[in-house]
Amino acid sequence: MVSFNELKKALVRDVTTEMSSPNQPLSDSQYNKGFDVLMNGTERTSYEQFIIPELSQQLTSLLASRPTFSVIEIGPGSKSVLGHVPLHLRRRIRRYAAFEPNKISATSLEDWISSCSPFPCLETAPNIHRAPFIFDDEKNNIIETDPSNDGQTFDLILFCHSMYGMKPKEKFVKKALNMLVSSPESGKLVIFHRDQCFELAGLISDHTAIFPTGTVSVADRNDVLDAFSPFVAGFIKQHVEVDMALRIKWRETCRALSYHDKKLPGYLLFSSPQRMLSLTRHANALVDLVLQVPLAKEDRVVKSWEARLHRPTSIFRPTTVKHVQQCIQWAVKHKLKLTIIGGGHSAHCLWTDTVSLDMEAFDRVHVITSNNDVHDANTRLVPNSLILAEAGCKTGDIIREAMKFGLTVPLGSRPSVGAGLWLQGGIGHLSRLHGLACDNIVGAVIVSVISGQIFHIGEVPTQNLPAGATRPKNEKDLLWAIKGAGTNFGVVISVTFKAYWAPNYSVWNWIFPVREETEAGLKLGDVNSIARNLTRSFSIDAYIYSDENQLHLGVTMFQASADKSFEMPPLVSSILGPVKQCKEVDGFGLFETEMYMSTMLGGHSGKSSSFKRCLFFNNIEDVQIVDILRAAIQNRTTPFCYLHLLQCGGAARDNTTKDSAFGCRDFEFACVITGVWPRTQTETEVVRTTIQLVYDVVRNLLSFCSGIYSADLGPDPRDNTLAAKAFGVNLPRLAQLKHTMDPFNTVAYACPLFEPPVEQKLIILVTGDSAAGKDFCAEIWASVITTCSSQMRTARSVSISDSTKREYATETGADINRLLSDRSYKEEHRPALTKFYKEQVINRPQLPMEHFQSVVNDSGSFDVLFITGMRDEAPLTAFSHLVPDSRVLDVRVNASQTVLRDRRWKRHDEIKPKNDLDGTNLSNLHYLPSLVFNNDKLGSGAAENFAKKHLLPLLHEDFARLGKMVRAVPNHPRQGVNFRHVLDICQQPGGLTLCTDLLQRHFIGEWAKVDTLVCCECGGFVFASALGARTGITLALVRKSGKLPPPTISVEKSQSHISSTESGELQQNMIEMDPSLVSKSKSVLVVDDVLATGRTLGAVLKLLMKAGVRRRDIRVMVVAEFPIHRGRESLRQEGFGEVRIQSLLAFGGV
């Protein structure tokens, strides 16, 4: 996909010498028309998923040091992007100013602020300057840059896509930096820009974020392209005829360079990566460090092609530990970030507008030999022998030096890889024998990124201790952490390894062409069978690749032996047949035996670049996994892409998550998904599509894998979901330790360690008629959630009917694979399937609940689970009590009879409502699902928009914030009750405002159609009053009988389970209300604090019906729900299934 910037260059090149007419800047209306085209397409997604979340984070960080803030925005357009950040942040803006040279936009901005009040707590009127922001005209400058003048300095200065045309950019940035307040702490300059590295002449960013998946979509119409192209190019031609000819040429260029997506028919797509950087008054602090620490050579080149694309402010080359300390102390003083260069393979060892430390000078390997010369043949461990490697060493350096003493360390498979490998795992051909590289770390020297203090942890030879080194109080925790996540907690100076006797190796190779689709699975099954029977001195690898459009499977087997007693197991030769190639090598020669380097596709010979992500699997012959792997190679973007499966297990599995931070132990194979392209094609469309292919394959495999390898992961937001699975149960502990050891996030661009949110799982039950598209929609919705970088969520779709289909296939001999994937075949078996299931339910009435619990439990770790194939009339009410700690919703997928007919390939009169395995026709049932989606349109666009509008908001962090405000009180009001103090929300700062925001934002319906808010004492009064004040809707109070003046109506109400006596006896009370407040209401909303048994809510609903309100005109919103009491089911049984009930939170317990 061609990028936005590449498109701009192409449009400018279209101006030929024959077009003699001079360029003319766009008028205000022309500019706005082009901008509207941009914002009406997928550019809006970049705002929703990147700009708004990142800006919100920057504001939250800013407000940690001040109660309110002032802001000046450069080029906001007709509406400020600040109007889209959460309300609780907008309430903290006390002063707003802007530079907007576009007169039309400036007028619209003023009108928007005055009419919509997006900043409700401003202390002064907004100051909109209808002029450009300039840096070199102090005489005519509108705003002075005197930091002592509070009225002319700001806490936040914002450029949101408004630096285009500003040259040289660093001068505008320096001007803006001088306008930042200096106390209580420096303000922030925040810049959003299309992802291109513009030089800032030595200025340093305190934080940078990227959004590489941004796109721009444009309707493929001449009038739209005629508005879009000049906006991109930045000019038109003065002469009308020349301008018209150029626009025609621009249309052709746009169409020729665009990407076409089947999901967006009629649109042209362009890649539009985005970048955010923030700077403070410390941005010019580089000079302080230059005077203390030597710089690296200007021609310093790192291995990673990705890292080479970044433009660091400077690279320093410390030669002593003192230099490292000075770098850290400088960074902490100025609240700036550092990156670390070890072997230079990491994509994030360099980062734009950031300072890097090159550890190249720390390149010594020390071998501490044993005083005991006895060879322990059982353990292969050399007693008392250690190998100490400094942080600038490469794998090859360590192996070469160790071999001089007949020793080795289990490291990786490439000689040029550095410390990042063994600090984050280290998978190699000795992993089955001795464990991962990180498992063999017994000590380290590390410089703290809090103070620059030198720590030594574990076993470090005395002669290798730097002066002043001390043991930290949390030594055990720190040693545990660097064994698998060691790039995150400080600057590592050296690592001490256990040493083993160095073996020799025998290497056998086989290559098999794969001609049939099923053959790939059979061959991988062979590899899997061999792997299960190999002793630990053996390991087997498999490669899936394509050569001359023919799928191939390459197999390599390794045997390690101290005395060269090599022998191929008979099972291997019987399964794999004659060997294609065999050789014997030592530990260093082993580096050259990797098939992808030496044999496959003729070897890459160092003339290619690659992008990799690695997942862990237990069973590589699983049909679904094999299908995804085969499709990955068939859909490869270049001929060189391949998959590499490395056998692990053995000793790597012996270690537990308590022994090291490496959190994934339950796996037998590591699967490296590798996209490869010629080195000459860097920064081209091929590179972008290949990288996305790798991420797409990983996403497809994510629900089947047991973990992710963290060594490749970094600041790319596509890695966030992967990082959440990289450390397993260790992630919370690591996140806490990161906060302790790196409180300023100085080492910010390593594999992300974020505290997993304490949030409830979201389970969405997808229902609908057969052929309505339930499975299709569920897959689309799961994909939207997984790929939303601002959410960092895992989601998957499963079918609850699959277990029945498997049982049916076992009993009848039907083809289970076709039942699961072939719709026509499934339709043939539908009557028999339905009969089979009904007979099962007769014999096992609890079967539906068993299936539900099974599908939830078998789905593993997830944030959002979509369950299709529901057969129940009201699945939410039937099953939510089985998962009381999760939020459960149901979504009904509808389609017209015509669409159903077309999808089923049947005549219209053959379509009949049915109750079967794939859905229930609800047209005659008195039940209202949580949401309804009409799936009549072709393509996935409508489903994607539905997910973005209705499902993604359910994952907003505000729900977690609200949930944390509801504390648990054990044994209150009596023994055995775990009381949730929902009303405590109102007693916490910002709690009632937050709750009111959520109630208002997440109401499913139109507020304009709600006539009355109904609330019952006492909890409902609190939340409904605040909501009524916010929306301007009047309240109708429900109270105990005798509390309200006449006229009133009343009904009987049982006590809630909390208020009932300890014996469980229910006392009856009467509740009442003034009927005139609701009798004429066309729509009422009941607001309450809690839904548990439904007794209180049921009484309120009966009271409303007594007042003349119809069931279908009633909606309910509660703050917290306790599904275990089955309140929804009780209300449905009482006839209130048509009443839509929403809850913000769900809690287990009583």
From TrEMBL:
<dbReference type="Pfam" id="PF01565">
    <property type="entry name" value="FAD_binding_4"/>
</dbReference>
<dbReference type="InterPro" id="IPR005919">
    <property type="entry name" value="Pmev_kin_anim"/>
</dbReference>
<dbReference type="InterPro" id="IPR016169">
    <property type="entry name" value="FAD-bd_PCMH_sub2"/>
</dbReference>
<keyword id="KW-0274">FAD</keyword>
<dbReference type="GO" id="GO:0016491">
    <property type="term" value="F:oxidoreductase activity"/>
</dbReference>
<dbReference type="GO" id="GO:0071949">
    <property type="term" value="F:FAD binding"/>
</dbReference>
<protein>
    <recommendedName>
        <fullName>FAD-binding PCMH-type domain-containing protein</fullName>
    </recommendedName>
</protein>
<feature type="domain" description="FAD-binding PCMH-type">
    <location>
        <begin position="308"/>
        <end position="502"/>
    </location>
</feature>
<dbReference type="GO" id="GO:0004631">
    <property type="term" value="F:phosphomevalonate kinase activity"/>
</dbReference>
<keyword id="KW-0285">Flavoprotein</keyword>
<dbReference type="InterPro" id="IPR029063">
    <property type="entry name" value="SAM-dependent_MTases_sf"/>
</dbReference>
<dbReference type="InterPro" id="IPR050416">
    <property type="entry name" value="FAD-linked_Oxidoreductase"/>
</dbReference>
<dbReference type="InterPro" id="IPR036318">
    <property type="entry name" value="FAD-bd_PCMH-like_sf"/>
</dbReference>
<dbReference type="InterPro" id="IPR027417">
    <property type="entry name" value="P-loop_NTPase"/>
</dbReference>
<comment type="similarity">
    <text>Belongs to the oxygen-dependent FAD-linked oxidoreductase family.</text>
</comment>
<dbReference type="GO" id="GO:0006695">
    <property type="term" value="P:cholesterol biosynthetic process"/>
</dbReference>
<dbReference type="GO" id="GO:0005737">
    <property type="term" value="C:cytoplasm"/>
</dbReference>
<dbReference type="Pfam" id="PF00156">
    <property type="entry name" value="Pribosyltran"/>
</dbReference>
<keyword id="KW-0560">Oxidoreductase</keyword>
<dbReference type="InterPro" id="IPR006094">
    <property type="entry name" value="Oxid_FAD_bind_N"/>
</dbReference>
<dbReference type="GO" id="GO:0019287">
    <property type="term" value="P:isopentenyl diphosphate biosynthetic process, mevalonate pathway"/>
</dbReference>
<dbReference type="InterPro" id="IPR029057">
    <property type="entry name" value="PRTase-like"/>
</dbReference>
<dbReference type="Pfam" id="PF04275">
    <property type="entry name" value="P-mevalo_kinase"/>
</dbReference>
<dbReference type="InterPro" id="IPR000836">
    <property type="entry name" value="PRTase_dom"/>
</dbReference>
<dbReference type="InterPro" id="IPR016166">
    <property type="entry name" value="FAD-bd_PCMH"/>
</dbReference>
